[in-house]
Every structure is written in structure tokens, then in C-alpha cells.
Recover the amino acids of this structure.
């Protein structure tokens, strides 16, 4: 499905941005003191561009902290005034959106629970019509790229061009290490469908625990994201939500120091040239691999014809076991991975049996 959205790059709203986009701040805004102290620490790090904080918190179960509400917008305005950082919060209905626009919040994001609801997204989009705000869309809870894209389309249709997608992981269907499992495949599919769309990663909500934030963030850069949203609290031990996954501002700095940021293109001509040459070699070797497979197929067909004449079955289990053994021995000598070679020959052999059966029992 060919779809084109009119999307502006991050540099259109952060001119001259040098580092990947970084959004940091507490899960929830709790008190004026917590908000301001966290912000004053975070602004010291020039890698932080946007201060985040949840004002209305979507909680899975009732009876937990649901956010301070509108007063939080006043604190965000204060952060903007005193630190010069851009500020952002989550909006989940028309009223939140109206209030956030009135408070001149720079970045509004749609949370994972809302993205999956087209009515909610449309209601938010209708309020945003004609505004120039940056709007970010977290992935829906299930890895449905169409639903994620649909939300982005609804916003683009009302004229929002400063759009960003955020991968925050998906609800796991079994016990997993992380709180929400990252689906890089879904993210890459979104990028394929909308190549102009900046995509960032929220490793805090994926990891669920602070010790795994670094590894998820690194993986996301390896997958080519344009930035990160990370939860940071002045004192996570007394946070009112997502306690286990928040980092103090110095801990955040330490995570950022360790990250190796990889770019889709290096901008280094010599490197691009070398990479091009190596890729040419891979391309020609892959061509040879396929030619060898095609030659192998011709022999497979001859075998099938002989077997047919002599009334022998397509699958001969002794031959198959012996062949597997020999191939894996050979592969070991060539320093190829055992498991990989086994799977590869299982596939090759399966296909060979399929072809032989076709010749022996034509439909
Ligand atoms: C959040 O960013 O604090 C939040 C609630 O995130 P999500 O919508 O990804 O659960
Ligand atoms: Mn949170």
C-alpha cells in the first residue's frame, strides 16, 4: 500500500541538532520540587533536548497514582522558562489536548494505550487541527503496524507535520525478561512504509528495570533509531510510578556515555567506498551460492527420475542421516556454526524431497 505523509525532519524544530534526539524526565510529575530539581540536573547535560513528564497517567489498575493533573502543566511551563528546554507530556483525550495547547507545551505524545484506539486518536487530532506542535505517537500495545501508521495518518491529515514515532515495546504474551518486548521488525516495517518518519526508542518502558536500559538503548541505535526517550527522576526510590525503571540524572549521563551511536550513513567517503567494495564481494558470492543451488537442483531431478524407474522412495532415511553427519563435520572444519549448518541442510534437503516427490507423483 503506497502511502505518503508530509513529515518534517527533527532539525526543522531543533535547528542544528548535533546529537540524537533525547527526551528525558520523570515518568510522572509529582511535586513542584521534584519537577524543578530533576529539570535543573538534566539541563546540565547538553545531550538532553526535551524534558518529559506525565501529568495524566494511564494506569493499568485503578487505585494507583493517576497523575497530578493540570497543575503539572504549570510546572512544565516553569521548566521551560527556567531551563530553556522544550517540554512534553502525554495527552489521552480532547480535554488534555486543549489544556496542553493552552499551556503551550511543545511536544505532545499519544501513549501506547491510546494509539490502539482510532476514536481517541481522531478526537486528539481534531483538537490539534491547525497547530504547529510536535506530536509523537507511541506504538500500540500489540505489534500492529497498520494501527500505528493509522494514528500517524490521522494526525498528518489535520496538518501535523512534526511527527515522531516511539517504540516502547509490546505487551508480552508470556513471561519475558523485559516488561514489554521490543519488536524491531515492526519498527523496521514502519520505517519501510514511512521512510521520512523519525523513530525514537523508549528503553525505559521496554526494559522495566533500570539495569537493562543501556542494552535496549544500544540495540535500538544498532537498529538505526533517531533518538531516545528515557525516564529520569531526581530520586527514583520514592517515585510514585515506574520506580524500578527510572534513572537519576547522573545515571542517565553514564548510560549515554557508554552508548555507541551508529548512523545509517557515516558521511565518510573512504568508509563508504570500502563498504561498497565489501558489499560487491558479498553480492557476487551470494550469486555463486544460488548458482550452486540451481546446479544441485538439476542433479536432484536426475536422482528423482532414477528412483522413479527403480521404484525407490524419495526419502531414504539412512542416506539423510549420513549426509547430515558428513555435512556438519565438513562445516566444523570450515569454522561454520553447527546449528546454522544443520538448519541450512534441513531446508535444502526438505526442498529436494519436495522436488523429487513432484517428479515421482505428478499431480
Ligand atoms: C509513559 O511514557 O510514562 C507512559 C505511560 O508510556 P506508555 O504509553 O508507553 O505506557
Ligand atoms: Mn512511565
Amino acid at each position: 500500500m503506497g502511502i505518503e505523509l508530509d513529515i518534517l525532519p527533527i532539525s526543522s524544530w531543533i535547528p542544528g541538532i548535533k546529537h540524537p534526539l533525547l527526551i528525558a524526565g520523570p515518568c510522572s510529575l509529582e511535586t513542584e520540587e521534584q519537577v524543578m530539581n530533576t529539570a535543573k540536573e538534566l539541563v546540565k547535560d547538553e545531550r538532553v533536548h526535551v524534558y518529559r513528564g506525565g501529568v495524566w497517567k494511564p494506569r493499568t489498575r485503578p487505585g494507583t497514582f493517576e497523575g497530578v493533573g493540570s497543575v503539572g502543566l504549570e510546572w512544565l511551563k516553569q521548566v521551560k522558562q527556567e531551563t530553556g528546554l522544550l517540554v512534553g507530556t502525554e495527552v489521552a483525550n480532547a480535554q488534555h489536548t486543549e489544556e496542553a495547547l493552552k499551556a503551550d507545551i511543545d511536544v505532545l505524545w499519544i501513549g501506547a494505550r491510546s494509539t490502539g484506539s482510532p476514536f481517541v486518536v481522531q478526537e486528539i487530532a481534531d483538537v490539534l487541527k491547525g497547530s504547529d506542535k510536535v506530536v509523537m505517537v507511541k506504538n500500540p500495545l500489540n505489534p500492529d503496524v497498520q494501527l500505528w501508521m493509522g494514528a500517524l495518518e490521522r494526525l498528518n491529515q489535520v496538518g501535523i507535520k512534526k511527527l515522531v514515532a516511539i517504540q516502547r515495546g509490546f505487551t508480552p504474551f508470556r513471561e519475558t525478561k523485559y516488561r514489554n518486548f521490543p519488536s524491531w521488525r515492526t519498527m523496521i516495517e514502519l520505517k519501510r512504509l514511512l521512510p521520512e518518519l523519525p523513530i525514537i526508542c523508549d528503553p525505559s518502558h521496554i526494559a522495566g528495570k533500570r539495569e537493562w536500559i543501556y542494552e535496549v538503548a544500544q540495540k535500538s541505535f544498532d537498529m538505526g533509531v533517531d533518538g531516545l526517550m528515557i525516564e529520569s527522576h531526581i530520586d527514583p526510590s520514592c517515585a510514585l510510578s515506574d520506580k524500578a525503571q527510572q534513572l537519576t540524572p547522573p545515571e542517565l549521563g553514564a548510560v549515554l556515555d557508554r552508548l555507541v551511536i551508529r548512523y545509517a550513513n557515516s558521511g565518510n567517503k573512504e568508509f563508504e567506498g570500502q563498504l561498497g567494495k565489501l558489499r560487491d564481494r558479498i553480492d557476487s558470492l551470494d550469486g555463486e551460492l544460488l548458482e550452486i543451488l540451481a546446479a544441485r537442483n538439476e542433479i536432484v531431478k536426475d536422482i528423482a527420475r532414477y528412483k522413479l524407474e527403480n521404484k525407490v522412495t524419495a526419502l531414504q532415511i539412512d542416506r539423510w542421516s549420513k549426509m547430515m553427519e558428513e555435512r556438519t563435520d565438513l562445516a566444523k572444519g570450515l569454522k561454520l556454526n553447527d546449528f546454522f549448518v544443520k538448519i541450512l541442510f534441513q531446508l535444502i534437503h526438505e526442498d529436494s524431497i519436495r522436488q523429487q516427490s513432484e517428479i515421482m507423483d505428478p499431480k
